[in-house]
Design brief:
The chain contains 20 helices and five strands. With about 400 residues, the chain is α/β, with parallel strands linked by helices.
């Protein structure tokens, strides 16, 4: 391990692929990262995964195995000038026969022009680019750069994986089970959310707070405080959660709907946006099976506007429960789709004369509105649709 002045998470960072916990689908014998390290010929990669999943660690291991010059930049603090300085260094390395790996943390924060600056040097092999991002590369990385890189998806570590890392750290630190009971290790793993760095930081702080006493659940909670949800209200996390909420409502799973609704609210999503989606759902997925659901959804949106959070949570959860438990019907949505298709296919069909408005004598003389009677359920024996569509049944 590194010197104790450095954070525990950095001291516990693996230096070889066989020390990495999790990601076996990438690191196991014969898998992608194993093949890359064995060949000692680095390739351009984009590591996409949540914080603490091992993006930086894997990049450093690849560079170490390839005996490459590893240069690390953060897209938050670096600009095009910094990139060009690295390129000059890489060109010198190339003449000496040494590969250069440029690791860019949070690469999604580089704008299009900055990302363009990598292209010619990646193509020529001057550098192997390894980018790390928590955002979907499809939206955040320019297409030319994506086509020249391999996207590697890293999932959050499993609870078992985090426990294994914590136990390895306690063994390295010489911490006894009396000092850190098994239940405390499990609790830390639960709070970490699959983030190895967060788990190790929590362990380190908990040990500091405990001093000579055992690390209890109360100490861990005190050290953890409130874990901030990993959520971008304009990014993929937002759309994944709202998608999960709607699909849970559609599947009549009230428990799942409540969980995803709670996630959205805790992450700070706009409650009016959630209420608007419920209004759409009430007509799209419930429709004629329970028409009153639309009234409730509209009332919920109004309540959210007038009451505001946190009290409006009751209104949102009330509505979500009703929508989830209500019978479902796609009759309106399916009929809507068929009607829109007809309107697209026949955009200019004349309205039958007897249905037309007739505000003038000339129009009445031409047959406009002829035979129509203002009566409930009036049937004239004629089709209300244009002749070309008389056989259409959008509700069939």
């Amino acid at each position: 391990m590194k010197q104790e002045s450095t954070p525990l998470a950095d001291r516990m960072r693996p230096t070889r692929l066989d020390q990495v916990v999790g990601h076996e689908q990438l690191t196991a014998k014969g898998k992608l990262l194993d093949l890359v390290t064995q060949s000692k010929r680095p390739i351009s990669l984009i590591f996409w995964g949540p914080p603490g999943s091992g993006k930086t660690t894997l990049a450093r291991i690849i560079a170490n195995e390839a005996e490459a010059d590893f240069v690390e930049l953060s897209a938050v603090t670096s600009g095009k000038k910094d990139v060009m300085s690295v390129i000059a260094r890489a060109e010198t390395n190339l003449r000496l026969g040494r590969p250069t790996i440029l690791f860019v943390d949070e690469i999604h924060r580089f704008n299009k022009a900055q990302q363009d600056a990598f292209l010619p040097h990646v193509e020529k092999g001057t550098i192997s680019l390894i980018g790390a991002t928590t955002e979907n590369p499809s939206f955040e990385i320019i297409a030319p750069l994506l086509s020249r890189s391999r996207v590697v998806v890293l999932e959050p570590l499993s609870k078992e994986g985090v426990i294994k890392i914590l136990k390895s750290a306690t063994k390295e630190l010489g911490i006894s089970q009396t000092k850190l009971p098994e239940t405390s290790v499990t609790h830390m793993a639960d709070l970490s959310g699959g983030d190895a760095r967060a788990a190790l930081n929590l362990l380190e702080l908990s040990l500091d707070i405990a001093g000579n006493k055992p690390v209890t659940e109360e100490i861990i909670i005190s050290a953890a405080q409130t874990r901030v949800p990993l959520h971008d209200k304009a990014g993929e996390s937002h759309y994944n959660l709202i998608s999960a909420l709607i699909k849970s409502l559609r599947g009549s799973d009230a428990n799942a709907a409540f969980y995803y609704l709670a996630r959205l609210l805790q992450a700070g999503d706009d409650p009016k946006f959630i209420a608007r989606r419920m209004i759409i759902f009430a007509s799209e997925d419930i429709g004629l099976a329970a028409p009153a659901a639309l009234n409730l959804a509209v009332s919920t949106h109004l309540a959210v506007e007038r009451v505001g959070l946190p009290e409006a949570q009751y209104n949102l959860f009330h509505c979500a429960a009703v929508l989830a438990k209500a019978p479902k019907s796609r009759e309106v949505a399916d009929a809507l789709g068929k009607a829109m298709q007809s309107a697209t296919q026949y955009p200019n069909l004349p309205v039958p004369l007897w249905l037309r408005n007739a505000p003038t004598k000339l129009m009445r003389d031409l047959g406009y509105n002829k035979g129509y009677k203002w009566e409930a359920g009036f049937k004239s024996g004629q089709s209300f649709l244009p002749d070309q569509l008389t056989d259409s049944d959008y509700f069939a």
